[in-house]
Amino acid sequence: MGFLPFFSFETWILLISFVFIFVLYGHWTFGVFEKLGIPGPKPMMYWGTVNRYNQVYYLDDNECAKKYGRVWGSYELRRPMLAVMDPEMLKIILVKECFTFFTNRRNFRLNGDLYDAVNVAEDDQWRRIRNHVTPSFTSGRIKEMFSIMQHHSHKLLVRLQSKMDNKEVKVITIKDIFGPYSMDVMANCVFSVDLDSINEPSNPFITHASKILRFPVPLFLFQGCFPIFLPLLELLGLSLFPKSSTTFFRAVVEKIRAERNESSRKNLADILQNFINYQTNKLGKERENQGLNDHEILSQVTMLLFAGYETSATTLAFLAYTLARHPEVMKRLQQEIDLTFPQKGPVQYDGLMQMEYLSSVVDECLRLYPPAARLERMTKETVKVKGITIPKNMIVMIPVYALHRDPELWPDPEEFKPDR
Ligand code: HEM
Fold first, then answer.
1. CA-to-CA distance for 191 and 197, rounded, in angstroms?
2. Which among 41, 61, 235, 366 could bridge 399 via Cys, Cβ 3.0 to 4.6 Å?
3. Virtual torsion, Cα 284, 286, 291, 295, nearest 10 deg
4. What are the TM regions of this chain, as residue ranges (predicted)?
């Protein structure tokens, strides 16, 4: 076997087998959409169709929608992912069959301590937790929290004014102000603590909340390319949510909770207290439809903090941006404000709810700049939706950003038109 350089025959066999298996594994999942007759970009080994037409994933979705229509097949690394932006199909997926075939989102498994947060939980556990989270967001409860929002909105105005009055400040990074504002509102509504991070930009709540949704890229790539190792990664305690941040939030909530058990702060009517009031530590079947356990309470409170922080801050930042670019809209909005609250009167909840133009402006802003540019659901069983077979365990991805810019649904999609 002297014609084989360097290695022995056995080593060569091993090497060739390894390369063969590596290449085969990298392609293994591809082809599923061809079989189903669904169009889509051609995948590359391991990489799938990620960033095929654009480096930015939601702009890539936009390009795919232009090329393939409202349904296409893509591969996020090795994972097949069906993109759907057909309105009739979406009604079935998100509404009609939500509780039968499309209850769950994709579960990355590497959720660390947040394994039982409402956005991660599945099936009956999700239903039960969701049933306990929802009552905190009724119009009555939001009305109760309104004075907290007023308090922080006032502080926001003072902060903005002081920036404007400061002649040395030439540019204001608006997210650095709306971010802390959102966090202060969230923390106050969730556990009645006034963080005052708006006046303290280096507040650890802001740094940790900003970090928490930034998945570590190497781990994300590895789990996507080699899902076979997921159980091992779980066993090693690896998590896509930065551990330092989840630990920070958990420690804060635990401390607040412990103090509350001891003191008169029990009477507070915030979201944390809402959970505690319904709490029960019964196990197993008995716990169904009853309260959340200690761990679940901590997870919901942590998750609510950053779920509300990032989305609200981004929305406010884009709202400021669009208003600055459309002075005619700002003027009309100002007129509606003056009409609803004459003589610069205080903003009231009921009046605010009547402001139709404001609502259209916010909706149009969310259409153009949705903070969540994609939604996801997983199929529980193989199911046919509008003639398209969606196999069991397929990720159904809703490209929200591309959907919001579909010219047939939104004529002149790039234009900001609150009156649409
Ligand atoms: C403009 C602000 C917001 C936007 C654009 C937004 C957007 C979203 C989106 C797109 C989802 C996923 C829905 C789905 O998969 O069907 C979601 C879920 C969620 N959001 Fe928000 N959100 C906002 C504000 C908030 C706030 C302030 C809170 C908390 C106080 C919050 C808590 C949640 C929770 C708990 C879920 C998970 C619900 C579940 O799994 O059942 N969001 N949000």
1. 15
2. 61
3. -10
4. 12-33, 219-241, 303-324
Alpha-helical runs (H) found in 98-168: 123-133, 139-165
Residue to probe by mutation, ligand 1, list 311, 322, 363, 364, most atoms within 8 Å of CB: 311
Question: What number of residues does the chain have?
Answer: 420
CA 308 – ligand 1 centroid, Å: 7
Model pLDDT for residues 245-269, shown as the tens digit of each residue: 999 999 998 999 888 876 666 667 7
Instruction: Tell me the pLDDT tens digit for each residue of 46-65.
Output: 999 999 999 999 999 999 99
Determine the Cα–Cα distance for residues 190 and 418; give it in Å rounded to an integer: 32
Domains and CATH numbers, the chain: 121-306 (1.10.630.10)
Tokens representing 118 are 């409402």
* Cα separation, 302 vs 299, whole angstroms: 5
Nearest CA to ligand 1 atom 13: 375
Other residues' Cβ atoms within 10 Å of the Cβ of residue 186: 24
